[in-house]
Amino acid sequence: MEIEDRDFLSTPPKKTVRFGGTVSNTLAKLQKGDTSDYELIKHQLSDPDIKDAQIISWLHEFRTCVTQLGKDHEQLIYVVLKLPWLGRSQAVVEEYLAFLSNLVSAQTVYLRACLRMVISNFAPKRIRIQEGNVDISDSDDEDENLPRTFDQCHQALQLIARYVPSTSRFLMPILSDKFPFVQKSSRTLECYVHNLLRVSVYIPDLRRDILELIISKMLTLDVSDLCLVTVLIYLQLCRCLMDEEEDSPLDSSRPDRAVMVHPVAERLDTMMTVLLAYIKDICHVNGSLDIEKTKALYRDLLSMFDKVVLPTHASCHVQYYMFYLCSFRLGLAEAFLDHLWKMLQAPNQPPVLRQAAAGYMGSFMARAKFLPVSTVKACLDLLVPWLHLYINSQDSGSKAFCDVNLHGPFYTACQAVFYTLIFRHNAILEGNMKKGLVYLQGLNLERIVMCQLNPLRVCLPAVTNMFAAITRKYQLVFCYTIIERNNRNLLPVVSCSTGGSSVSTNTNPLDTFFPFDPYLLKR
């Protein structure tokens, strides 16, 4: 653009004015050691008041000489990548996307930088955060533009992936690195998780990795900062069992649960909401369950369950994504139970995972109301004979004493059976009491309770007491003699493999937790 001398001298330069030569000429000068125009371009590109027309003009020039923009010009490229293109006019967005396409095609050295630029916009820049009643951050007046901004980010990412087939290989580390700290606001985490899941739709090769990243971050919240919530769960569980309630102690419809007071719980609640909405959207097409898509997602989520959820002790909420998915179709619930059953049986699996599988199996059977009683009985018909076979192999041997380390999977399986019967005995007995009693009598629970391994001594007291009350009511097993004898015995449960030394008395030697009791997050 030419400028008349009188205009230049008499008035301040306008924001639309450009100084220096073209980008191509500037790069040529730079090769000869003249950096003046090069620095001038960087300065003008960094102008916070840069106009749409200027951005378009610059980008057009950069596109024409993109093959000249090698590694030596990375400072200039980084300035261009910081241009405020998001939320601008459609002409600016289209020109910027065209520039990105040309850049990654001609100079793959800048692929990571382009990806980082896009991903850095997956969370809002400004968010209102309150501590108490005090607003401690900038306003969130840009929030209404976020959907459009995110759409443009995904448009850019899809374009890059189209021009560079290896994009997915470089993208995952950046997605992980850019994940906001879990102490960030709920809105920040919500946006980022939503955008990650959106990426998994059009880059399906990354779905498992993205799910693992999200679920791992959620588990960090679930187990590290919700210890008080876990204690509350146990207190409510004990009260629930003692009152012989069939339902979860917390009702999600109660108005006093309208607000999550715990800030960590609020963040986790928000992230869980996004994940569950994603599961629903993937599985349901036009209001109907898409079986093939559901099965594929089930396989991915089950893989994540085995990898990160099952080995995580005392998580309160994250595992409910499997509970929710299994509620869509009975076949999924039965497949999940079968998976847990196989893991419990597998002698090559670490005992801690076998015990976790038994705990999940019992909690799922007890709490999943979408499971028909026929499925519950089918699972009991697997678990109970397995317990009898285990007793056959141990009861008369040298290891026939109460030792959690030696018999952990057995004890956890016993507790799973007891716990299931606490919550499901009414369903088994209703309709035909006589037939139901015959079924329960056929389980031969008395032999399990009376065996030398003494499972009642190891199970959680709340479970033991409730199981004893129910089995006495229907004259199935008389547990109280054993319970009283265990209570009189001052020696603690043996926890060393030799059976020779003792430890302090532990009311929860199995380190029990019930993964589906109860769900405390409001959404």
UniProtKB/TrEMBL annotation:
Pfam families: RRN3 (PF05327)
GO annotations of cellular component type: nucleus
GO BP terms: transcription initiation at RNA polymerase I promoter
Source organism per UniProt: Sinocyclocheilus rhinocerous
UniProt name for this protein: RRN3 homolog, RNA polymerase I transcription factor
Protein family (similarity comment): Belongs to the RRN3 family.
GO molecular function ontology, one term from the record: RNA polymerase I core binding
Family annotation (InterPro entries): RNA_pol_I_trans_ini_fac_RRN3
